[in-house]
Structures are given as C-alpha cells and as structure tokens.
Amino acid sequence: MNEEIMLLFSFLKAPLLFSYIGPGMGGGVIAAIFGIFAAFFLGLWGILYYPIKRAFKNKKRKKKVLTRNENNTRK
Q: What angle do CA 21, 32, 16 make, to 5 degrees?
C-alpha cells in the first residue's frame, strides 16, 4: 500500500518537477518568436516593396523618354 501511494505521488508530482525552463530555453523561445515575426515582415516587405519600386522606376523611365521626345520634336 505504501509503495502504491508513493508511486501515485511521484506520478502526480512529475510534471511539476520537470517544468523548469532555464535561461537558455527562454532565450531560444524569444529568438524563435522574433525570427517568426522577422520572417513574416520581411516576406511582406519583399512582396509589397519591390513591385512598387519597379513601378516607380518604370514611371521615371517613361517620363525621361517623354521629355527626350518633346525636346527632339521642338528642334
């Protein structure tokens, strides 16, 4: 009977005994969370920024071509 009570007690206390999270694990969790957020925002940046940048570059290029054509037709 005593052994059964001790066995039951050890199984009930096991999750509490193994629930220590050291500083290395805490730092790893923080780094993982930061990495997930960074990957999300960098992906969003890549999806949105580069097409907009290309559109502005094309707009500038068209503007230069138009001004050259206007200068050539005036002469």
A: 20
Cα–Cα distance for residue pair 17/10, rounded to 1 Å: 9
CA dihedral (39, 40, 43, 44) positive or negative: negative
Q: Is 24 helix (H, G, I), strand (E, B) or coil?
A: helix
Q: CA-CA distance, 56 to 63, in Å (whole number)?
A: 10
The answer as to whether 63 is a domain residue is yes
Asked if the structure places residue 17 within a domain, the reply is no
The pLDDT tens digits for 14-62 are: 665 566 677 788 888 899 999 999 999 999 998 988 888 888 888 888 7
- Find where tokens 């960098």 sit: 42
Residue 51 lies in a domain: yes
Per the domain annotation, does 1 fall within a domain?
no
Helix or strand or coil: residue 20? coil
